[in-house]
Automatic annotation (TrEMBL):
Keywords: Cell membrane, Membrane, Protein transport, Translocation, Transmembrane, Transmembrane helix, Transport. The chain crosses the membrane at residues 41-63. This is Preprotein translocase subunit SecE. It comes from the Bacteria. One of its GO terms (biological process) is protein targeting. It is found in: Membrane. The keyword Iron does not apply. NCBIfam families: secE_bact (TIGR00964). The keyword Transport applies. Pfam families: SecE (PF00584). InterPro entries: SecE_bac (IPR005807), SecE_sf (IPR038379), Translocase_SecE/Sec61-g (IPR001901). It comes from [Clostridium] aminophilum. One of its GO terms (cellular component) is plasma membrane.
Amino acid sequence: MGDTGNTSKPKKKSYWDGLKAEFNKIIWPDRDTVVSETSSVVAASIALGLIIAGLDTLIVWALHFAI
């Protein structure tokens, strides 16, 4: 009988090992980037809210005027 080598299957990585490996690939932004992008999102949200409020007021006024 000859040695056919290692016939066992390679050990699969567990889910948690894979998750940890992927988590370590994340490049976290620095504080300045987070502050800048958060400020942009807040400003855009406020602007959009004001636009929607203005349109809503205009539509309500127009409907009251028409009725």
